[in-house]
Amino acid sequence: MAATFRDATEADLAAIVEVYNDEILNGTATFHTEPQTVTERAQWLKNVKAENYPCLVAEVNDPATGGKRTVAWCNLWHYNMRQAYDGTAELSLYVHKDFRACGIGAKLLERTLEETRKQGDRFHAIIAGVTTDNSRRTRFWAEHGFELKGTLKEVGRKFGKWLDVSYYELML
């Protein structure tokens, strides 16, 4: 599927919230359990931009409106707030449920990493925390150069079950 990629803006917030809240309510890719508001996500985006972390979206042509539709987003953020971790960032990637498994997530990840590399030696390592209940999700990270570094057993509880989280790392 053809998509275009660009920096996220406030105009994308409603779509970002739609994608994220669907995962909050129906998935395990995030351990948030309460839906987010546009206001909360606006503060999140403001913080990401203020600290010059990459945050990109993927758009597709929407035949229903004749315009563009934001269907995915990817960003980096602090892995840990302690200063010695400043060269390490955690990556988040979310794709609308109707647009998964068609290559948009992979291309968005690639573009986000390109933007990350443009910042020179600011980032040394990228971390992705991934719940292990979805084998397609865990394969995705390995297929894109991230190495499995370890799994924490039953560290999050969602939908009445304990979930494991694996940590994948990409060295830049």
Using brief descriptors, characterize the structure shown.
172 residues, Acyl_CoA_acyltransferase, Aminopeptidase, acyltransferase, alpha+beta, GNAT_dom, globular
Describe what you observe in this structure.
The chain is of the alpha+beta class. The protein has one domain: Aminopeptidase, CATH 3.40.630.30. It is 29% helix and 36% strand. The protein has helices at 13-26, 38-50, 104-117, 135-143, and strands at residues 4-7, 55-62, 67-78, 88-95, 125-131, 147-158, 161-171. The protein has a seven-stranded mixed sheet with strand order 1-2-3-4-5-7-6, sandwiched between helices. Helix 1 packs across helix 2 (38-50). The longest helix is centred in the N-terminal third of the chain and has 14 residues, at 13-26. The protein is globular, with a radius of gyration of 16 Å. The two termini are 28 Å apart. The relative contact order is 0.16. The mean pLDDT is 96.
